């Protein structure tokens, strides 16, 4: 157990956690950032997705020691000055969730996708979101939401 310094949602934080503890566990259990969900714990569902340096990352498979020095963003960090991010706004607008358990991970993966590809085709959206599972089957609305988010963020699709 040692002190680990993390950058989460623009804040510099210190946690006392074993180096091998998962980033997901640290976020949820030590930092009370419970928007990030535990699904499978094995890298298969995407519920635990956060951004590390802008890229979608499975926090269940990431030891906290591997997150040192990275800019971590969770679902709680997307809103800026009380305004939802374009992806959050689009998911609300399109009603792209039912139970909502997968939604934070979906939004983080979509944010990562749009960071890399500003105007993705439907095929690119489907491929980019492929690692995120929605047990409620809201995939068509999720794809619609990512398309809308691309427009809201200034893409052309
Ligand atoms: S909980 Fe991390 S991928 Fe399922
Ligand atoms: S909305 Fe229920 S798992 Fe996706």
From TrEMBL:
Q: Which UniProt keywords apply?
A: 2Fe-2S, Iron, Iron-sulfur, Metal-binding, Oxidoreductase
Annotated Pfam families: Fer2, Fer2_2
Q: Tell me where on the tree of life, at the top rank, the source sits.
A: Bacteria
Which residues belong to any copy of the 2Fe-2S ferredoxin-type domain? Answer: 2-78
Matches recorded under CDD domains: fer2 (cd00207)
PROSITE patterns documented for this protein: 2FE2S_FER_1, 2FE2S_FER_2
InterPro entries from the xrefs? 2Fe-2S-bd (IPR002888), 2Fe-2S-bd_dom_sf (IPR036884), 2Fe-2S_ferredoxin-like_sf (IPR036010), 2Fe-2S_ferredoxin-type (IPR001041), 2Fe2S_fd_BS (IPR006058), Beta-grasp_dom_sf (IPR012675), Diverse_Oxidoreductases (IPR051452)
Q: What one GO molecular function would you report for this record?
A: metal ion binding
Q: What is this protein called?
A: (2Fe-2S)-binding protein
